[in-house]
């Protein structure tokens, strides 16, 4: 539910500077490592064959036999002899022991001068016999850089390897020695693209409570002078996508104090005691910069109840993290000037010690937006989109009951994608309707082939829903009926759920009758039942069971509720009632469903002709709207709650206009009086 019309600067990398310095360091490190490994594995090999060590006596025997072609001698008396391409079998000793000379031979000579004289004598004798002389080269041994490369660099590479390994284990916490450091993100108050309360559409009550916390941090004397104390924590509770994290970002943008943000899953690691250490480090950083705000997103990751359910054992690391958090929030020590904000969509699973006064003093409920709030959210997300003249924001807000801020943003983006896919320059009203259908019902399956009998069965089923709901006062208003397959559904009747603040027995019974209208039409007009009513029967059974077991809307179990808000019986191992009571619940549930099924059949029998017309129109056109049903069955004599709310809002807006005009007239009169008084003073 953010205000996305603001132009947010994209980060640009300065020219001439590397984008990721650590990447270049890694490349250099691995290049050096592979160079050393390559030298060790391939540097001491020669292309002519495998090297072989031998004594100086055998080397002279090979030389005398003419097996050596070339010799290289270094100043450290190391000699490398290369055997001629031909193979030579040399015999040593008197017993005829021999070996075959091949490849490269290595040995150590007594001294360079002595070996040089010996080779000169051998070559002179060879020249007299007109034989090939031995090519001898005297070279220097490896220099100091080579010795450093071979002897010292491997140890350096090993040290660097362990350093990189420790950083990989520790991640952004500073290596393996910084595992216990908190990974909190510190928001800068001078950020150009920061989020403020103006960027949050709707959420009036939640914004008011959070604004009070920000105002306390900005002007604490206003509250402390009369004896008020700063709240220690506030818990943002609400369904996913309602804007809890966005509201926390707005606090970071509005408050002129340090804002530490961290997720609940960031506390727990594979090492024992890391979570508690990170909690201590996080609060230590916040105390050093107090006054400050700590925001923990998805706190249920570490704040789950330690005695929830009947499961034995527990996660010791998570529980120690939770215990440390409880101690830091309101323990023996003092955390003055530090406020904790947390967000969760599962407040029912949080530990009771975490929710008590003195820790989270406030629970701020961030609910799904109502009609007026959805209108404001649509206005925010529609600003960057090119709209057609047919788009009406009031109509869109009525078509999306139960949608969260994230859902509305998704609808706007999906509508723009549909328009662009169709080659249109602007987004039309139909694009938004298709986007709502796409999100609620799924992708249209155009390749789904159905027979005439299947299409007729689906049409009569959906026509039963449309007919019954149209003729019931408290049923949700019909929008359209379709037999086009979408997602897992072969057909659907689309309604606008009434956003009631209070639901009574008549409302629930009308909804049950509407749900059973499809199955009733199958039994009346097709004399058969199909699996297409599975979802309808499931929802109807759950609603009827809730009427009996939870709401106390039953004759035999009146004013009795077996609902447990603490979740103690969520695993179903125990029940808070006897077997006899369970039989009564089953009987009453079946009775309610049977009564509403009979009621739906009666309505369809009385309006059989209209039902047949709706079904036939569905077979021909596949999609019909509420206007088509209105032309067949006539207009509904009841107004929907959405229309009533729009009329109330329009009346309130009209009532505010005279007040504004009166204020302007008073301001103009005051300004004229002040001007006259000033002129009189000047004349005097």
Structure description:
The structure is a single chain. The chain is α/β, with parallel strands linked by helices and 684 residues long. It contains 23 helices and 16 strands. The strands form four sheets. Strands 8-10-11-12-9-13 form a six-stranded mixed sheet. The chain has a five-stranded mixed sheet with strand order 1-6-3-2-7, with helices on one face. A three-stranded antiparallel sheet has the order 15-14-16. The protein is elongated, with a radius of gyration of 42 Å.
Brief summary of the model shown:
This protein has 684 residues and is of the alpha/beta class.
What's the SSE blueprint?
Blueprint: H1 21-42, E1 51-53, H2 56-64, E2 68-74, E3 78-83, E4 88-92, E5 97-101, E6 104-108, H3 112-128, E7 135-139, H4 144-151, H5 153-170, E8 185-187, H6 204-218, H7 221-224, E9 233-237, H8 244-254, E10 259-263, H9 274-288, E11 292-297, H10 316-330, E12 338-344, H11 352-355, E13 362-365, H12 371-381, H13 393-399, H14 405-421, H15 429-441, H16 452-470, E14 478-482, E15 492-495, H17 505-515, H18 517-526, H19 534-549, H20 579-606, H21 608-621, E16 623-625, H22 626-633, H23 641-683
Parallel strand pairs: 1-6, 2-7, 9-12, 9-13, 10-11, 11-12
Antiparallel strand pairs: 2-3, 3-6, 4-5, 8-10, 14-15, 14-16
Helix pairs in contact: 1-5, 9-10, 12-13, 12-14, 14-15, 16-17, 16-18, 16-21, 17-19, 17-20, 18-20, 19-20
């Amino acid at each position: 539910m953010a205000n996305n019309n603001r132009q947010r600067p994209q980060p640009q990398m300065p020219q001439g500077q590397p984008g990721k310095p650590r990447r270049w360091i890694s490349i250099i490190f691995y290049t050096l490592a592979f160079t050393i490994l390559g030298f060790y594995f391939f540097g001491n090999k020669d292309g002519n064959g495998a090297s072989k060590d031998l004594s100086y006596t055998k080397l002279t025997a090979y030389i005398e036999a003419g097996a050596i072609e070339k010799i290289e001698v270094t100043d450290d008396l190391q000699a490398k002899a290369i055997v001629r391409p031909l193979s030579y079998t040399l015999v040593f000793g008197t017993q005829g022991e021999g070996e075959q000379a091949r490849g490269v031979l290595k040995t150590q000579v007594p001294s360079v001068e002595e070996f040089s004289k010996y080779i000169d004598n051998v070559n002179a004798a060879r020249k007299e016999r007109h034989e090939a002389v031995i090519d001898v080269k005297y070279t220097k041994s490896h220099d100091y850089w080579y010795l450093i490369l071979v002897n010292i660099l491997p140890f350096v590479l090993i040290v660097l390897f362990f350093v990189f390994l420790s950083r990989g284990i520790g991640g952004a916490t500073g290596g393996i020695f910084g595992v216990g450091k908190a990974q909190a993100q510190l928001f800068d108050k001078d950020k150009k693209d920061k989020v403020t309360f103006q960027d949050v559409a709707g959420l009036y009550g939640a914004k008011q409570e959070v604004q009070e916390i920000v105002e306390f941090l900005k002007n604490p004397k206003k509250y402390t002078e009369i004896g008020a104390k700063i709240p220690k924590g506030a818990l943002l509770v609400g369904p996913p996508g309602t804007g809890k994290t966005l509201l926390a970002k707005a606090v970071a943008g509005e408050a002129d104090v340090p804002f530490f943000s961290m997720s609940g899953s960031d506390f727990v690691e594979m090492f024992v005691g890391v979570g508690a250490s990170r909690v201590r480090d996080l609060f230590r950083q916040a105390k050093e910069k107090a006054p400050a705000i700590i925001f923990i997103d998805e706190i249920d990751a570490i704040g789950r109840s330690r005695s929830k359910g009947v499961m034995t054992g527990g996660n010791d690391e998570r529980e120690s993290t939770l215990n440390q958090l409880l101690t830091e929030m309101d323990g023996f020590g003092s955390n003055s000037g530090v406020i904790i904000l947390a967000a969760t969509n599962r407040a029912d699973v949080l530990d009771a010690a975490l929710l008590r006064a003195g820790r989270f003093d406030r629970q701020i409920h961030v609910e799904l937006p109502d009609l007026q709030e959805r209108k404001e959210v649509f206005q925010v997300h529609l600003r960057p989109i090119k709209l057609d003249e047919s788009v009406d924001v009031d109509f869109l807000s009525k078509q999306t009951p139960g949608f969260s801020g994230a859902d509305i943003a998704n609808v706007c983006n999906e509508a723009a994608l549909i328009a662009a896919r169709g080659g249109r320059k602007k987004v039309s009203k139909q694009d938004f309707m298709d986007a709502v259908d796409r999100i609620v019902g799924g992708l249209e399956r155009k390749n789904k082939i159905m027979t005439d009998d299947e299409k007729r069965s689906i049409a009569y089923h959906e026509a039963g829903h449309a007919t019954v709901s149209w003729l019931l006062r408290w049923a949700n208003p019909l929008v359209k009926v379709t037999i086009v397959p979408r997602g897992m559904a072969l057909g659907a009747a689309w309604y606008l759920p009434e956003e009631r603040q209070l639901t009574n027995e008549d409302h629930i019974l009308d909804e049950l009758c509407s749900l059973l209208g499809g199955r009733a039409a199958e039994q009346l007009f097709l004399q058969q039942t199909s699996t297409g009513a599975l979802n309808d029967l499931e929802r109807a059974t759950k609603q009827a069971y809730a009427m009996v077991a939870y709401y106390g809307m039953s004759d035999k179990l009146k004013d009795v509720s077996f609902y447990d808000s603490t979740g103690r019986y969520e695993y179903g191992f125990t029940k808070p009632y006897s077997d006899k009571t369970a039989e009564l619940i089953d009987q009453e549930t079946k009775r309610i469903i049977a009564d509403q099924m009979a009621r739906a059949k009666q309505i369809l029998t009385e309006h059989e002709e209209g039902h047949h017309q709706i079904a036939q129109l569905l077979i021909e056109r596949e999609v019909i709207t509420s206007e088509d049903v209105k032309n067949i069955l006539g207009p509904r004599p009841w107004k929907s709650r959405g229309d009533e709310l729009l009329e109330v809002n329009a009346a309130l807006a009209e009532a505010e206009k005279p007040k504004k005009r009166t204020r302007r007239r008073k301001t103009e009169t005051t300004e004229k009086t002040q001007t006259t008084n000033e002129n009189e003073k000047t004349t005097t």
